[in-house]
Structure prediction request, 363 residues.
Amino acid sequence: MRKSTIFAAAIAAMVTACGQPTETPAAGDAGAGAANTPAPTLFQWESYMDPPFLAEYQAEYDETPQVSIFADEDEAFARMRAGYVPDVMGPCYYEFPRWQEAGLLRPIDVTKLANWEKIPESLRTLPGLEAGPNQVWFVPHYWGNTSITYRTDLAPEYVGNESWDILFDPKYRGRVAVLEGVDDTIPFIASMIGIDAYSMTPEQWELVQAKLRELIPQLRFVSSDETSLAQGLASGEIVAAMSWRVTFSALKAEGLPVAYMEPPGGIFTYVCGLVVHADTPDYDKALALVDSSISDEAAVYTIEDIGDGPANTVALSAVPDEVFQDLGVPRDVDAFLATGIFQRRLVNKDGIVNTWTEIQAGL
Prediction:
């Protein structure tokens, strides 16, 4: 989320919450100069469709891509399985294999991406990306964290004593929140009771479910909407929220007394990226939109205005050290990924999604 756009993002989130598709042109004249196909649609997380991600594409095609927001990848997957066909989508590394196996993706020819070589080899060679010679299913876009953002003035006893146990603290019953997506919440809660969610046995999954049921009465709400989490923390409605680092970054930039928990044992790390829909009508435009999203301008915007680390690290040489120090992340993506628990694909994810939905409903 951008430093000064909590209100603007709230409007977009309200539209999404009401079930409207939000396929609206970004600033500019969408479609102007398009030869045979309409401007492509970027189906993305909030903020990652802002103007810097579209700029190179606009300069090349003299048209503005359409944009569509998803709150989490389970929602995005369901919409596409129901027939929605965007051109470029923004899942995270742990999620894209499910989309590929469902026949939703087309391989990306990296020789057509001018910015591909600006991504470190460690990200370009993540297991499962390759789809053939010079072809990948997934282009790394940015990297970040999942932990807990909390109000240091409202929960001062956790300052210097950071613990995810704040979610279960009776003192803050009804004043904490967690993310809705299972890729964040399930590994997070499993880790709290010493279970690796990526290799858990059926018996261990039963223990995780019991912990999730214990969690539900503690919660004010469950949401993967950055705006809801940020507004709840800003108002004091919630004291602590499981969140991505960008939520913390936005609130800190507003001058609010917040901190991002880094308890012993490390926090969760992830890499999100870009994929191309199998049925995109204009493959070249789709690739140009992917390339635009990992441009130098987009990379600097990602770290300075959103608070995540861009996959294009070449562009970061001019970014001051203070920016990284402020966010609490290193310049080196390899050092970053080595410090946390890397989010991977959940086994039997569809079953986990169904169970988590039932638990939230009190079943």
Notes: The domain at 144-268+342-360 is CATH 3.40.190.10 (D-Maltodextrin-Binding Protein; domain 2). Residues 1-34 have pLDDT under 50 and may be disordered.
